[in-house]
Amino acid sequence: MTEPILQVTGLEKSFHIHAAGKTLPSLAAVSLTVAAGELVALVGPSGAGKSTVLKCIHRTYLPMAGSILLHCADGIIDLATADEASVLACRRRDLAFVTQFLHVLPRQSTVEVVARPLLAQGVERSAALARAREQLDRFALPERLWDIPPATFSGGEKQRVNLARSLVTRPRLLLLDEPTASLDPQATARVVAAIQALKGDSFGILAVFHDRQLVAQLADRVVELSAPIPLSPVAV
Q1: According to the model, what pLDDT value does residue 7 have?
Q2: What topology is assigned to 4-224 in CATH?
Q3: Residue among 161, 182, 165 nearest 174 (CA)
Q4: Contact indicator for 70, 95 with CB cutoff of 8 Å
Q5: Quick one: pLDDT at residue 229?
Q6: How confident is the model at residue 228, as a pLDDT?
Q7: CA distance linking residue 25 with residue 228, whole number of Å
Q8: Which of 123, 98, 204 is nearest to 134 (CA)?
Q9: Strand order in the sheet with 204-208
Q10: Exposed, middle or buried: residue 56 (CB in 10 Å: 0-12, 13-18, 19+)?
Q11: How far apart are CA 171 and CA 89, in angstroms?
Q12: Does residue 187 contact residue 156 with C-beta atoms inside 8 Å?
């Protein structure tokens, strides 16, 4: 394996429910690595914290302990402790997160949806739109749909737009949180084919799938999480 793009060590996260006087554990001492060109799948029982790992890496959640080292183009950032400005800059450049739903501004054309991350980086509009069209073509979305808002698209079409938008900035790490969970079998097959086409590229992929067959089909390595041990109630 090449040098890791992502190194997670001793990651811990709990959630405090003050109204109930309880602390709910989610992650305990999770460690993993992801290298360029590989897809690492997170598996484990419900409640093991698979999605929480992704959200801690993305810094949607603030970890309680551990380190999350992302090897960016211009250095290494610890996403567990970095300030908000550094995290936001990292998301614009080096980190992309795809969930099972596409959230976009209404009435915006598909090519503009995909170009938006580049425009946020300050890329000139014509260049951003050209790269967006390249991504849409890469994911085999019919050209007749490019100038139409994606609200009326099928689930599989929306998810291919989601992938195209996430990869248009050429990130170092792609996080996938059950990207096929809401799709029918035909749409799932198309999205899986799109993900397979990404493997071996210059970025790493850390993914959660609800279907073990998809894990066997797509993963280069598997990291298994265990459900955390319940903690005692906290005083309030």
Answers
A1: 97
A2: Rossmann fold (3.40.50)
A3: 165
A4: yes
A5: 59
A6: 64
A7: 6
A8: 123
A9: 95-98, 173-177, 204-208, 39-43, 221-224
A10: buried
A11: 12
A12: yes
β partners of residue 40? 206, 221
Q: Residue 120's Cα: distance from chain center in Å?
A: 19
- Return the residue matching tokens 């109630």: 233
- The rounded average pLDDT for each run of 10 residues, N- to C-terminus, in the chain (236 residues) is 86 79 77 94 87 94 94 90 92 90 84 94 95 92 93 88 92 92 85 85 90 92 80 47
Residue 111 has a pLDDT of: 96
Take residue 67 and report the two structure tokens written for it. 């380190």
Sorted by where each begins, the domain ranges of the chain are 4-224
Burial 188-220 (b: 16+ CB within 10 A, else e): bebbbebbeebeeeebbbbbbbeeeebbeebbb
Question: Please, how many CA atoms are within 13 Å of residue 55, restricted to the half-sphere of its CB?
Answer: 15
Vertex 102 angle, CA 100 and 108, to 5°:
170
| Residue 174 in tokens | 């792609």
